[in-house]
Amino acid sequence: MFKLFRFLKPYWWQVIILLFATALQVYTTLRLPALMADIINNGIVAGDTNYIWLTGLKMIGLAAISAAGALTSSVFAARVGTNFARDVRAAIFTKILNFNLLDLKSFSTASLLTRTTNDVNQVQNVMIMIFLIMLRAPLFLVISIIMAIQTAPDMSWIILVGAAAILGSAVTIISIVMPKFKVFQELIDKITLITRENLTGLKVVRAFDNESLEKKKFVRSNDRLTRLLIFIDKILELQNPLINIIFNGTTLLCSWVGISLLSKDFAYLGNMTAFAQYVTFVMMSFLMMSMLFVMLPRANVSAHRINDVLKKTTRIHWREKTNGIPEKTVSVEFKNVDFIYPEAEEKILDNISFKAVAGETTAFIGSTGSGKSTLINLVPRFYEATSGKVLINGLPVENYAKEDLIKRIGFVPQRGVLFAGTIRSNIKFGAPNASEEQMKKAARIAQAENFIEKLPDKYNSHIAQGGTNVSGGQKQRLSIARAICKNPDIFVFDDAFSALDMRTDAKLRAALKEVTAETVTLIVAQRISTIKDADQIIVLNDGKVVGKGKHFELLRSCKVYQEIVKSQFSDKEFKKEMAIAEKTRQEATNVTKVGAASVGISERGKRG
Description:
The protein folds into four domains: about 1-310, ABC transporter transmembrane region fold, CATH 1.20.1560; about 320-400 and about 490-565, 3-Layer(aba) Sandwich (Rossmann fold), CATH 3.40.50; about 410-485, Rossmann fold (3-Layer(aba) Sandwich), CATH 3.40.50.300; about 570-608. It has a six-stranded mixed β-sheet with strand order 6-9-10-3-11-12. A four-stranded antiparallel β-sheet has the order 2-1-4-5, with no helix packed on it. Strands 7-8 form a two-stranded antiparallel ribbon. It is elongated, with a radius of gyration of 38 Å. About 65% of the residues lie in helices and about 10% in strands. About 30% of the residues are buried. Strand 11 and strand 12 form a beta hairpin. The chain is α/β, with parallel strands linked by helices. The protein has helices at about 10-45, 50-100, 100-105, 110-135, 135-150, 155-200, 200-205, 210-235, 240-260, 270-310, 370-375, 400-405, 425, 435-445, 450-455, 470-485, 500-510, 530, 550-555, 560-570, 570-605; strands spanning about 330-340, 350-355, 360-365, 385-390, 395, 410, 420, 460-465, 490-495, 520-525, 535-540, 545-550.
C-alpha cells in the first residue's frame, strides 16, 4: 500500500492544507468540553450569567471554526484521493501499453481490467478514509486521553477498559476477514473473465447450444462470491453491536463512577461532564480506526495486485534514440534467428535466415503451428529473438528507438482490430495527420471504398467497439487501409486476406502493387492463390525453413509445399501446375546450356 504513496507527490501542498485543517478541527472540537465544564463549574454553580454567555459565544465560534476545518479537510481529501486514483489508473494503462505479447500473458485480460477498475477503486476509498480518519482519529485519541486525565484523573482507568475492549474486537474481526479479501478479488477476476469470454464468443456459444453450460459456470462462480460476501458482511456487521455494547457500557461506567464521586464533591459535576465527552471522543477515535483497519486489508490486497502490474519488468527494452544509421535501401533480414517461449522446451523458430528487399514480396506458408505468425511478430519487435539477429534496413531491431522502428512498419493482424469511433478515425489511426485524399486512396486500394460509399455517413459512419457492426471482410479491408494510409517502408500482413473472397483478394493484391514498388512486403497466408506470384516464398515446417524460392521452383523441389498445393487444388489443377513447373525447369536448363555453349564458343574464338 505504501509503495503507491509516491503518486501523492504532485499533491503535497494539498495534503499540507488538509493536515492543517484537520489539526484545526481537532483542536477546536476538543476545546468545547473544557469550556462546557467551565460553564457548569464557574457559571451555573456560581450563578454567573455573564460568564455563561461569554463562554457560550466562544463555544459557538469554536464550533464554526471546527465545521470549517472539517469541510476543508473533506474537500481536499476527496480531491487528492480522486486525483491519486486517476494517476494510478493512468500508470497501469501506460504500463500495459508498453507490455509486449509475452508480458501480457503474465496476466489475464480480465485480471488487468479488474486491477485497473475495481482494485484502484478499493485503494482510492481507503486513501480518502486515511486522510479523513488516519490523521484525525489519532489526534482525537491522544489529545482526548491527555485532557480526560487532566480533567478527571480518578476516572482515567475507564478509558483503558474501553480501549482494550475495542482493540480486542477489531483484531479478532480483522484476523478472520483478512484472508477472505484475496479470495474475493480472485473471484471478481474469474467472473470478469467468464463474462468477457461469453460476450466476445457469443456466436460460438450459441452455435454449439452451450448457453446452459456457460450459465452454470457463471452461477457457480457467482454463488461462491455471494457466499463469501455474506460471510464477510456477517463478520463485519458484528462490529456495530460490539462497539455499541462497549460504547454504552463505557458511558454507564462513567456515569456510575462520576455519580459516586459527585456525592463527595458537587463541584465535580463539570469535570465529570467534560470527562464523559472526552471518553466519547476516545471511543469514537477507536471506532473510526477499527473501521479503517478492517478496510485496510482489502485495500492492501488490491494495492499488491496493482503493484504486481506496475513493477512488472518488460522483457523488451527500447532505446531512447536509435543507435546507428539505417541503410537507405529498405530491407528485412533474419540471420540465424531462434525463438523459444519462456519455460518452453522446444524452439518455435529454429535457425531462420532470409532477406526481403524493397520492391519484392516475401511470403510465408506452412502448416498450423509452424511458426509463421511468431516469425513476423519479431519484425515490429512484439517478441524478442532468443538468438540471432533481426535487421531492418541493415540495423538490428534492438538498436532502434520504438517510434523510429514502428513508424517504418504497417502491420495488419489476422483478426482485423477496429476501435470505437468512425471509419475515418480508424483508417487514420496510424497517420492522424493524413489528408482526405490519402485516406480515400488507402480505402480504394484496400477495396473498402465501394462499401464505404454506400453507407449514409460514408467515412463518418460509426464503428462500434471491436468493429462488431461490420463484417469480417469489411473489418479486414479497413485494417489493410489503415496500414496503407500510414505509408510505411515495410508491410506485414499476418494472414490478412483470409476473410476476403478470391475475387476481392486478387483485386486487392493487384492494387497493392501501386504502393509496394519501393517497400518490403511480408505476407503470411494459408491460400496458395494469395502468395503464388510472390517474389520469394518461404516454407516453414516445425519452425524450420524447408523451402525457399518461387512458386514453380518450390513445386519441383519442396515436398511440404507440394502437399500444401495438392491439398488446395484439384487433381487436374495440380497436374497442370506440376506440368508448368517442369516446363519452366526445362526452359531454365536450356537457357543455362545455351549460355554455357556461348561462353565455350567465345573462349575457342579467343584461343584461335
